[in-house]
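Input/output pair, single chain:
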Amino acid sequence: MRKTILFSTVILAACGLLLLSGTSQADNDADIKAVRAELQKMIPAAGSAEIVAAPAKGVYRIDLNGSFAYAYVDGDYVLFGDLYDTARQVNLGQQARGERMAKVISEVPVSKMIVFGPENPKRYITVFTDIDCGYCRKLHNEVPDLTEAGIQVRYLAFPRSGIGRESYTKYVSVWCSDDQQAALTSAKAGGIPKKQSCQNPIAETYKLGQQIGVTGTPTIIFDDGTITPGYVPSATLITRLGLDG
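Output:
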């Protein structure tokens, strides 16, 4: 019989219907095979996706190129969506995505960033930025507020117009300056950096941004992997990082 996939939200309730699984590995493997077969009909990438048992009976976590979703298997039906732990009030899919993003960003050497703030910060944010982006400039004007609160701001280049275009060339010139921080601040204030070239990571970080889904600037990534697209006032960032007390 053909199975049916229902798209919805899967809830892991403290005293609900989904309990910690005592299912055997053989049963898990069979359900994983069924979930994979059905998802592959709609999402070809599911054929090679990682699928693992979640902390709820009959529920499986699916990694589709770093985007996590959950499937609940019950006979001829598969319920596909997010998984919530209501006891802790946590979206487990969002949590997994954050953990993955934090790992990806942690693997980027700081030597490929232009960094503002203390060497030993209380918290840090990583920002994909473009020199000519108005909201990037607005955020940069508030960097002193962030660094005073103990937040390190780590910039990764993301010239929105693409490799080889004017914004890209400006960022390369900034990168190759003797004082990268001063050059970036000047460029974001409308100054034209002295044209220079050297070995640089601009194309690499631009491609990284594309790979992780950055579509605009600024894109702010908190140190726990949470992504916030667009400008956020410094006071809000400080509060969200728990440093306003």
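Residues 1-8, 10-21 have pLDDT under 50 and may be disordered. Residues 4-100 form one domain.
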